[in-house]
From TrEMBL:
Residues 42-302 form the G-protein coupled receptors family 1 profile domain. Its main location: membrane. InterPro entries: GPCR_Rhodpsn (IPR000276), GPCR_Rhodpsn_7TM (IPR017452), Prostanoid_rcpt (IPR008365), Thbox_rcpt (IPR001105). This is Thromboxane A2 receptor. The lineage of its organism: Eukaryota, Metazoa, Chordata, Craniata, Vertebrata.
Length: 363
């Protein structure tokens, strides 16, 4: 009897971890599928809006900006589609990399996609910030030198640079490694063998931080130039409103990139140059998940921060403010009228003059 009880208790103890593991795996697959679906929907909607806006554009500088913005949204869309599919496949395969990827082909492709779709949005955001800075502060140079064909070549070079950094570990025979969480592949950062294992993640982080820093500087200088032009010129110009819309979008993209990608880039530098410990693995997984939100939040910048939406929000705010001020004026007039009636109640008919005359009578 005791043997049966011990066997039953042993079975229960074996079943519980299996059930918890299965439920955790199903939860991870569901979360990944929802994240991928939301990202694809958001980027598709933003791409539709940008393409529609690109067909109506008559200003060459704005056409270059929308071209880069559309390229950024397409990159985020492909990143969500490819990386999300890989994550769902890994979780559905019980994270058993030795079974479904014995030659580390999928792991190398996974790591290269992580690096490429991570650096490309940062490079494109930096190029958009530099292009806007030149277009506003040096308009003649922008119109003569930065032709549309040059901007398209620069776009291809940025994608090529990100792809080169992504395949560099494979070319140097330092393939990507399955991380301790066994849910994704990334640089070899735990116990590096030589200087290459330190150089590759540092190159990724330094390029990303340099792009973020250059975006911050250019967006700050461009905003100051626009503010100065707005203060010096009182009349409203349509091109200035276009510039303000683009700068608002650039500032939002820069803020999203700093919040989402900044922790991962800094954490990779810390992991590559310091001693490793177990809590760092959990932190790495957390900052990687934060970075994936960049591809979800980027398209909503173009969906929400448009002139039509901003104009409606401003009109809504103005209507609410005017209604509150109108109620306040009515309350003041009613209070003033009651005070006038009280002062005239001692004798004679009530004074039915306007509020200005009533104020003069009180004073």
């Amino acid at each position: 009897m005791s043997t049966n009880e011990s066997s039953v208790s042993g079975c229960r103890s074996e079943v519980r971890p299996i059930n918890s593991t299965c439920s955790q795996r199903e939860l991870s697959i569901t979360a990944s599928a929802i994240s991928m679906t939301v990202g694809i929907f958001s980027n598709s909607l933003a791409l539709f809006i940008l393409v529609k806006s690109y067909n109506r554009i008559r200003i060459k500088s704005r056409a270059s900006f929308v071209l880069y913005a559309s390229s950024l949204v397409v990159t985020d869309l492909l990143g969500h589609l490819i990386i999300g599919s890989l994550v769902i496949f890994v979780y559905s395969s019980h994270k058993n990399w030795e079974t479904f990827d014995p030659h580390r082909i999928i792991c190398s492709f996974f790591g290269a996609c992580m690096v490429f779709f991570g650096l490309s949005p940062l490079f494109l955001g930096c190029a958009m910030a530099v292009e806007r800075y030149i277009g506003i502060t040096r308009p003649i140079f922008h119109s003569t030198v930065l032709a549309p064909r040059h901007m398209k070549r620069l776009l291809g070079l940025l994608w090529l640079l990100a792809a080169l950094v992504a395949v560099l570990p494979v070319l140097l025979l330092r393939s990507y490694k399955v991380q301790s969480s066994r849910s994704f592949c990334f640089f070899y950062m735990e116990e590096p063998k030589d200087w290459l294992d330190v150089f590759l993640p540092l190159l990724f982080s330094m390029l990303g931080l340099l792009a973020l820093l250059l975006s911050i500087v250019c967006n700050t200088l461009t905003s100051c130039a626009l503010l100065q032009a707005k203060l010096c010129r009182k009349n409203h110009c349509r091109s200035t409103s276009y510039h303000i819309e683009m700068i608002c979008q650039l500032l939002a993209i820069m803020l999203v990139s700093c919040v989402c990608w900044g922790p991962l880039l800094i954490h990779v530098i810390i992991l590559s140059t310091s001693a490793k410990d177990e809590p760092a693995v959990v932190t790495l997984l957390m900052v990687v998940r934060m970075a994936t939100w960049n591809q979800i939040l980027d398209p909503w910048v173009y969906i929400l921060l448009r002139r039509a939406v901003l104009r409606k929000l401003f009109m809504l705010f103005q209507c609410c403010w005017l209604s509150k001020s109108h109620k306040l004026n009515n309350w003041q007039c009613s209070t003033l009228r009651s005070s006038v009636e009280t002062s005239n109640s001692g004798g004679g008919p009530p004074d039915c003059r306007c509020p200005d005359a009533a104020i003069k009578s009180i004073t």
